[in-house]
């Protein structure tokens, strides 16, 4: 690309940005003041190509502090299955606030919500509550090591399991796809974590089964997102069946991280969709109706590590706000509603998610646009470049600038996708709104073509 062409593209990008700035002056003021006092004003997950700040939310929409309304494809990063501010959750929270929102001493909500979660999937005997998905995976890793007496936990390349040290490892891109080595993500994490306490497995690659067999003497647990957030797809049945079989064969625990997929893919999560029973499950997001929550659940023999029952080695697990009454109320409100209406909600989410993805993919194919919409029901990710993607390692990273320009233009068409570019639709997104999303995507592609990016 020549210098003149590069300058021209930069000029057109700035023109789009200036239009957004013109209608988001209050957002600009907040961004300026935040940068002066916050060590990290915006984390990567919410880093938009043009930063906006939200004032209110309703159904399928978000409204920024300048009054601009957007079709929301963020869904609170997944949990807002009924849309923003759903009535069952709002009612439950309002009722609880009248009674109080922090007691320290538990109320009866924990047992009620735990019963709902237990009834959602046959693999679950007991439940413990914490405050986030990261806390849940941290406690689950600790429980697995205590229960098995083994120290290594295995993750898959392309996975995401939270922000604690044991979760922040990734595949070294210089290593072989089928035998990935692991390295830490970011500074401040000892090398021993990636080299001695964690290991990396290749996603959707049967060589992972051989690696599990090879390391079974030291391997406490294998952890997988049954549907990866970086690579959303549902054609994982054969791989997950094989994984369950080899973990059982090798006496290694299997954990499903359903922090994103739980109560999103189906009411019973991926466990229901694939009819597989893991030994441990972690939840978050959706199970609290959008309130802060993390959940570890599983078979009684492993969950005994939280109580020391049956002479099981007991771990330390605590948290001031774990099982707080406001979150329990929100969780009970949403799960009771989802359970009662699951035969309407989940088929609709799959139908509309598949329709949106198909129309975008057909459009890209017929217009020779190097992008594809991958989806697992109502969660989806538009990926630029690459056709046969089994793992996030197969994604062509050279399209980063094009991808960022796409979402800048899409924001200009009043459709909001979060910084990680994982999008969600909700039950509040009517077919008409889905049509508007499809049209906005198509118009954005045409913008990029007109500007010379395609």
Polypeptide structure, described:
The chain contains 13 helices and 16 strands. The mean pLDDT is 93. It is of the alpha/beta class.
Topology, please?
Blueprint: H1 3-23, H2 25-37, E1 54-58, E2 61-64, E3 69-72, H3 87-99, H4 109-120, E4 126-130, H5 133-148, E5 152-156, E6 169-171, E7 182-184, H6 191-197, E8 198-201, H7 207-214, E9 219-224, H8 237-249, E10 253-257, H9 269-274, E11 280-284, E12 294-298, H10 300-303, H11 325-366, E13 371-376, E14 379-384, H12 400-412, E15 415-416, E16 422-424, H13 431-451
Parallel strand pairs: 3-15, 5-8, 5-9, 9-10, 10-11
Antiparallel strand pairs: 1-2, 2-3, 4-12, 6-7, 11-12, 13-14, 14-16
CATH domain fold name of the domain at 100-337: Aspartate Aminotransferase, domain 2
Strand content: 15-25%
- Read across the widest sheet, the strand sequence of neighbours is 4-12-11-10-9-5-8
Q: What Rg do the Cα atoms give?
A: 22 Å
How many DSSP-defined strands? 16
Distance separating the two termini: 12 Å
CATH class of the domain at 100-337: Alpha Beta
- Describe the global form: globular
- Helix % is 40-55%
* Low-confidence segments: none
Q: By CATH's scheme, which homologous superfamily of the domain at 100-337 applies? A: Type I PLP-dependent aspartate aminotransferase-like (Major domain)
Number of helices: 13
User: What's the average pLDDT?
Assistant: 93
